[in-house]
Amino acid sequence: MARWEPNAPERLAQAALELFAERGYENTTVLDIAQRAGLAKSTFFRHFQDKREVLFREDALTGPLLAAIAASPAGAAPLEALARGLDALGLHVLKPERRDMAIRRRAVIDANLDLREREALKGVSLTAAIVRALEDRGASDLAATVAAELGALALQISYERWSDPAATADFGEIAAQAMDEVRAAASSL
Amino acid sequence: MARWEPNAPERLAQAALELFAERGYENTTVLDIAQRAGLAKSTFFRHFQDKREVLFREDALTGPLLAAIAASPAGAAPLEALARGLDALGLHVLKPERRDMAIRRRAVIDANLDLREREALKGVSLTAAIVRALEDRGASDLAATVAAELGALALQISYERWSDPAATADFGEIAAQAMDEVRAAASSL
User: Fold this and answer.
1) Chain A nearest C-alpha distance from B113 (Å)
2) Are residues B107 and B37 in the same domain?
3) Chain B nearest C-alpha distance from A150 (Å)
4) What are the distances in angstroms from CA A77 to CA A62, A73, B186?
5) pLDDT in tens, B72-123
6) Are residues A71 and A39 part of one domain?
7) Which of A19, A34, A53 is the last residue of a domain?
8) Are residues B49 and B140 in the same domain?
9) Per-residue pLDDT at A187
10) Residue B32 covered by a domain
11) A61/A48 same-domain check
């Protein structure tokens, strides 16, 4: 009988990162991850399609980002709506206590081609989702696409800076700065 | 004894596309591809790391694109250098007689998750290579990154429009138009 498991995706992701750091991504099985998290293997597969996916809990970022874009004032320009989205990520997801996990996650992905491929694909999917969210606000196809590429770039730069062990600022501050830089660079091309 | 095989990568890519269209990507082996091209399996692996790679002859696009960026006048802005790169692709690689192959390639990739992942990763690698080429010309890290993202977007839009069965214009014309549109959208954000 399936029990309700509080916060299972989070626990599985945490367990996976521990195991990947201890014995490597290749030497860790889904069963290992489930056992470390104190959960059944079937619980893993209720939440993730395969082992790679445990590192890409896309709803964790995509949901709050798109919700904040949708909730931006009607008159806000695409990049302004995106800036609000990044700010929401800092407040609700990429909180200071999550930074250690982000640093470890980065190291695992960088070391594995399959994971870098999956990450690249997720980046493409996220950008496509941002395009749709901006079009829903009335932006033209091209304006939405260009803004989404620049917003995704600001997110990537912010995430890299924030998950640098030497970083001290909150994600929201880092993201606001990155967005300003990207905007300035785009307008001066 | 290994013979010199004229134009082997091109012949293998052509044979692969024929077979993928006839029997599907999953049902085609590397041996099938080599045999259809009249080449040895070992010749395939001299040119491509795996079956997926035969659809991504990256040097075919990356080499001419980066060479044209590097050959742009010293004073050319990053997006101007990129526009020259896209023009070179139209002249030397994405020629009218290659369009049928591009249309068939698109259909194979769209139908397969593994291939879409590899394509996303190739897109990320290509963008990174463009960033380095622009930095070599003296652009700052951020200016090079923003220009490379916009240039890669213009390339993607151009390639999609050009490989649309209904397209009639040459790649160079389509790319110049797409670059103008992307530039205008970026400066009006």
Assistant:
1) 10
2) no
3) 7
4) 20, 9, 12
5) 999 999 999 999 999 999 999 999 999 998 999 998 998 888 888 888 888 8
6) no
7) A53
8) no
9) 84
10) yes
11) no
- Are residues B182 and B102 part of one domain? yes
Look up the CATH number of the domain holding residue A85: 1.10.357.10
- Number of cross-chain residue pairs from A and B with Cβ atoms under 8 Å apart: 79
Q: List, in order, residues 6 or more apart from B147 with CB less than 8 Å away.
A: A189, B78, B79, B82, B130, B134, B139
What's residue B27's pLDDT?
A: 95
Domain identity same for A44 and A74:
no
Let me know if residue A1 belongs to a domain. no
Q: Which residues of A touch B120 (CB under 8 A)?
A: 117, 120-121, 123-124
Q: Which of B146, B187, B188 would you mutate first to test chain A, the one with the most A CBs within 10 A?
A: B146
Task: Report how far residue B129's alpha carbon sits from residue A163's, in angstroms, rounded to the nearest whole number.
Answer: 24
Task: Give the span between the Cα atoms of A84 and A159, in whole angstroms.
Answer: 16
Nearest to A121 by CA among A16, A49, A14, A39: A49
Which amino acid does the sequence have at A146?
Answer: V
Containing structural domain, residue A90: 57-187
Report ipTM (2 d.p.): 0.77
Same domain, B94 and B158: yes
Q: What is the C-alpha to C-alpha distance for residues B58 and B49, in angstroms, rounded to an integer?
A: 12
Number of domain units in chain A: 2
Query: Binning pLDDT at 50, 70 and 90, where does residue A6 land?
Result: confident
Q: In whole numbers, what is the pLDDT of chain B averaged over residues?
A: 91
**Res A2 pLDDT > 80:** no
Residue A121 sits in the same domain as residue A68:
yes
Query: Across the interface, which of A79, A117, A189 has its CB nearest the CB of B79?
Result: A189
pLDDT tens for B1-16 read 456 677 899 899 999 9
Cα Rg for chain B, rounded, in angstroms?
18
Average pLDDT over residues A54-71: 89
Q: What's residue B124's pLDDT?
A: 85
The pTM score is 0.82
